[in-house]
Predict the structure.
Amino acid sequence: MLVELQYDLTRKQRLIPHLRIWGVIQLFVILGIFAVAAATVQHSWWTSFVVALLILWFGRGYIIGLFNVVFVRSQHMDIRIEDNGLGYMTGKERWYILLDGLTAVRDLERSVWTIQHWNGTIVNIPKKILSDEALKFLRGWVCQANDIRNKYGIQSPDPTKPTKA
């Protein structure tokens, strides 16, 4: 299968899936920011510095995702779905994630499918341009990959868990 897609994602199409993926964990980042502020007010610069470093380290994906939504109005995407990989453009280079690392294909926002990879990569594709055949192909890879991981004792998220957009 070879599918090539080019499209633009709005802020909403990137923000809603980002917030829903991070779920409760984002509260720890927000609480950490308040802890840094409180420690700074109390003139405990060392505590502020350590807590800020921990927030930046453990919440870096969340923070970078929010910065992307805030500072990039419309994200142009160039996606290529092949037999065993999904390629996406970063600058002038195409990067690939292998399909056996997919963990879920979910509808976290009304207008996009969100594809999640084991390494943390997230790809949002508008529902109107992704064919039913390509969606079935990707979901098949998710089930196959999760079966392989479960066989070796690696806990996989449930790809069939219903989500409401």
